[in-house]
Amino acid sequence: MSLPTRQVHLDFHTGPQIPDVGATFDPAAFGETLQRARVNSITLFAKCHHGLLYYDTNRPERHPTLPRSLDLLGQQVEACRRHGIRAPIYLSVQCDEYAATLHPDWIAINPDGTHVGSKPLESGWQILDMSSPYADFLAEQIEEVVRLFKPVDGIFLDMCWDQISVSKWALAGMRNANLNPEIEADRNTYATRVAQSYMKRYNDLITSVHGSLPRVWYNSRPKVKLVEEAKYLKHVEIEALPTGGWGYTYFPLNVRYARNFGLPYLGMTARFHKSWSDFGGFKPQAALMYECCQMLAHGASCSVGDQLHPRGTLDAGAYELIGNVYRHVEECEPFCVGAKPVTEVAVLRAPGSYHVAPGDTNEGVVRLLQQLFIQFDFLDASMDLSRFQMLIVPEAHPMDSALVQKIQQYVRAGGKLIVSGVNEQTPADLKTITGVGSVSPASFRTVFARFDPKLVHNVLATDYVLYEPTFLLTASSGATPLATIVEPYFERTFTHFSGHNQTPPADATRFTPATLSNDGAAFGFDLFKAYATHGSTSLRSMFAAVINRLLPVPLVKSDAPSHAEISVTKQSERDIVHVLSFCPQRRTPTLDLVEEATPLAEVSISLRVARPVKRVSLQPGNTPVTFVMGGGYVSLNLTSRHGHNMIVIE
Fold it and tell me: Do residue 370 and residue 418 come from a single domain?
């Protein structure tokens, strides 16, 4: 972790109607508050979504009520430097109310002809088109900020998603690029090109003014595009406010992908009860502790979002909350700085949106593997697979001949393979590897699975519904069917049904929903989507049977409850096992909340090790832990009332 470990992202979106910007700002108090809260980096505002500036400038966009005598950003940066606190600088990109009002022709246009963003009588942001002259307008602002504040600790450019537009500027650009604006795919392609073009342009601009390229981050970019865009970056930030729309699986999903690009990375949550600019909204300390310790467990630096009051005084309550958590983070840092995640399973990341939609395939992967304590990474298909013992290809992942050949080579070298969503179009070579003899469509939308309890544990002697459409598989010679498909009496229709939901099971068939061979396993339905959508524990039991067979000596073994999260990192000559025990609960129609840590009692944890262990301790606190060695594992029992435990093995 070469990034500062205890960061704050300080929003300051302050409308022109606010009458007293900076009225109570005290640079000494500003720096001292941050120091007491153990903050070692804070992102400060040069320009907000309102398009207003907060430094000493003659540009007309300077906030109209910021006193001429007050260089707010300049004094904030100086106060931070006095305390050894880094101060990257923020500028808003596609949100700029000042520019949108002054130049409405710069606003992005939807394909239906409406403006992108808020409607005329709504309070909200209008979205600028980066193929318009606004890109030049923003370049002038960036150039001035870098010139005035160099050397800078970083530049944070926000609201940089791929924005579809059919403005006159965008239409001309698409024509020049031989793209057809009537075709959605071409509009998407152009939007990505525009974004990547200004990323390169602004990097070159900053370098020319600064003399070198500092850390520049383009926020709101889809993480899946890191494979193309890592060349523009020196680090990665993963904005993930769990209660702000991202949920509690967004960070672990994306950090397991982002950490494979060789760049330092951080997680960003916020102190807000809900989302950004939630003035007066404070999450419980346990929630912020969980979110920051989850970052540490994945080898990331921490960042907590806040919003400065317009008068310029940091909220005492917010920094009491942040400080309470950051003091723990600081105590953990000797065992986190430089620590690298240790993983054994690779998952090819399925296509997905910026925010994970409920029932998303990748979300299902995270939930299933985390609950089974499997150490895994998400990968792009172009990445090296050789360091992993197992490869998972989830449903919906695109497949071509090059990838099939790569997978075959991987399996020939000893790797194991799991393929979900097998159907008639699945390449024959993958079916062979995973023990699939035949594939045929089911006659019913909903079928049932009858498990052999000797093979699949923790299931009842009954027929479990498979909520998602299922293909009928047979196992090839030498392979094992994981269950028997049981069909219902008949298909449910509006004229022909029985009961409230699916038609009851009737007759067993010769087919199976999943197969298991020596080299792999196949599921004839969308396993991960099904688990994310329905949460049926029978699916987890079936998947666990596959893991137990194909990965018989996993890195971690534990009888911890399924809500616990166990992650392994390695730091020089010691291994660190992070055990998180927090349990988000759905306390409102839309919010999963954490109010306290969940105690653990006599939980057994075993870590596979390559050499004898001399000492095990619980950190921070340096408490010795009794352990035993056997079968290539170091094993111990953990009893703790704390939500974050670091087991350090030396």
Answer: yes
Cβ-Cβ contacts under 8 Å for 34 (sequence gap 6 or more)? 8, 42, 80, 83, 85, 314, 319
CATH of residue 565:
2.60.40.1180
Closest CA to 604 of 622, 626, 623, 620: 626
Q: Is residue 111 classed as helix, strand or coil in its secondary structure?
A: coil
CB distance 566 to 556 below 8 Å: yes
DSSP letter for each residue of 237-293: EEE--GGGTT-TTHHHHHHHHHTTSSS-EEEEEES-SSSTT-TT----HHHHHHHHH
* Secondary structure element (H or E) that encloses residue 11, with its range: strand 6-11
| Distance from C-alpha of 110 to C-alpha of 131, rounded to nearest angstrom | 14
Residue 441, phi-psi category: left (phi > 0), alpha (psi -120 to 50), beta (remainder): beta
Distance CA 401, CA 125 (A): 45
CA distance 196 to 200: 6
**Same domain assignment for residues 545 and 560:** no
CA distance 538 to 522: 16
Residue 43 lies in a domain: no
Say if 258 falls within a structural domain: no
Instruction: Answer yes or no: are the C-beta atoms of 156 and 86 closer than 8 Å.
Output: no
Give how far Cα 570 sits from Cα of 67, 299, 621, Å.
Answer: 51, 10, 19
CA dist list (Å): 365 to 346, 372, 373, 403, 524: 11, 11, 12, 20, 16
Structural domain containing residue 622: 556-649
Contact 423, 471 (CB under 8 A): yes
Predicted pLDDT of residue 573? 87
Beta strands in 459-504 (DSSP E): 463-466, 471-475, 480-481, 483-488
Integer-rounded Cα radius of gyration of the chain: 27
Give pLDDT, residue 139: 98
Element (H, E) at 391: strand 390-393
Helix (H) or strand (E) holding 405, with range, is: helix 401-412
C-alpha 41: how far from its chain's center?
Answer: 22
Q: Is the pTM of this model over 0.85?
A: yes
Q: Identify the segments of the chain with pLDDT beneath 70.
A: 1, 356
Q: 151-170, pLDDT tens digit by residue?
A: 999 999 999 999 999 999 99
Q: Where are the alpha helices (DSSP H) in 86-183?
A: 97-102, 134-149, 168-176
Number of domains in the chain: 3
Alpha carbons 550 and 585: distance in angstroms, whole number: 33
Q: What is the C-alpha separation between 245 and 357, in angstroms, rounded?
A: 10
pLDDT of residue 355: 73
SS3 label, residue 108 = coil
Q: What is the pLDDT of residue 358?
A: 72
pLDDT of residue 263: 97
DSSP letter at 441? E
Q: At what angle do helices 537-550 and 361-371 cross, to 10 degrees?
A: 70
